[in-house]
Amino acid sequence: MIDLFIIILLIIHYTKLLVHLISLASCHFKNRFLRIVVMSEEHEQILTAMRELSKNDKYSILLPTYNEVENLPIIVWLIVKYMDESKFAYEIIIIDDGSPDGTLDIAKKLQKLYGEDKIILKPREKKLGLGTAYMHGIKYATGNFIVLMDADLSHHPKYIPKMIELQKYQNLDIVSGTRYAGGGGVHGWDFKRKLISRGANFLTQLLLRPGASDLTGSFRLYKKDVLKQLIKSCVSKGYVFQMEMIVRARQFNYTIGEVPIAFIDRVYGESKLGGSEIFQFAKGLLYLFATT
To answer: Which residues form the Glycosyltransferase 2-like domain (predicted)?
Structure first.
């Protein structure tokens, strides 16, 4: 009988304790939820202020293409989606280098779909290199900011508004997407390619000390005047072009910010990085080391 009484008391005691713990957890969750709501409201206020600051700005997004017939419709749709949602003024300039797979035909259809004010086509007859493609595209850009990115879905357009927000918040000259800092990363590469990329980035950091964590990345936002000045100072025309841009930016004391990105290996098509590009990278690295 006594044992039964003790058991009942224990049940009552632990029931009260359980109710108390549930109450504490509920209060903690409520406070946490309210804190999240407040942070969300603050973030929305910041976004509103950023949009107000950007209302007179326009962003020209340059898309060099070569054999991107599968990727181009997707990347354009994503750019339109995120830029429209963010309410930033923009244009997409497609620079096709004589793709034999019909990329230009797809670009023309996209222009009809989204309008000539949103999609500007500035094709070239043959493949002339990434650096010259950017130089060609900027001549037709009407925006006061330029976004450089790949058309193969390696760079997700969802990061563009984040780059714009950071640029406005700190009044930066350049904002670069980084794979190597702050939670950035690379997905879809095998171990060998990751090792090569890490090794190349390590060498550039060691030899050039650029003041940016991802020197070889090609996803960036520039003030237009800054980009023009950098282009004038650069001599590289291929993949080394991106590397030289950051090195020259450091020489001109331009301010650089970084947004962590998840770099995704291309879904469709073949990588354009081959032996000749690797050789050009090594050659360009030595040139920049000797001249900066």
So the answer is: 60-230
- Alpha-carbon span 49 to 62, nearest angstrom: 26
- Beta strands at 145-148 and 220-223: parallel, antiparallel or unpaired: antiparallel
More confident residue, 263 or 146: 146
Largest CA distance in the chain: 98
pTM of the model: 0.77
Domains of the chain plus CATH, in order, are 54-290 (3.90.550.10)
Average pLDDT over every residue of 127-131 = 83
Q: How far apart are CA 251 and CA 271, in angstroms?
A: 32
Q: How far apart are the first and last CA of the chain?
A: 91
pLDDT for the residue 38? 38
β-bridge partners, 92: 61, 119
Mean pLDDT computed over 89-116: 97
Considering Cα of 179, then 180, then 183, then 188, what sign does the dihedral take?
positive
pLDDT tens column, 188-204: 777 777 787 777 778 87
Cα 253 to Cα 255: distance, rounded to the nearest angstrom: 6
Contact 243, 236 (CB under 8 A): yes
Compute how many other C-beta atoms are within 10 angstroms of the C-beta atom of residue 97: 21
Per-residue burial over 105-136, b if 16 or more Cβ lie within 10 Å, else e, is ebbeebbeeeeeebbbbebeeebbbbbbbbbb
Q: Supply 63's token pair.
A: 């898309």
Whether the CB-CB separation of 67 and 99 falls below 8 Å is answered with yes
For residues 27 and 256, what is the distance between their CA atoms, to the nearest angstrom?
Answer: 43
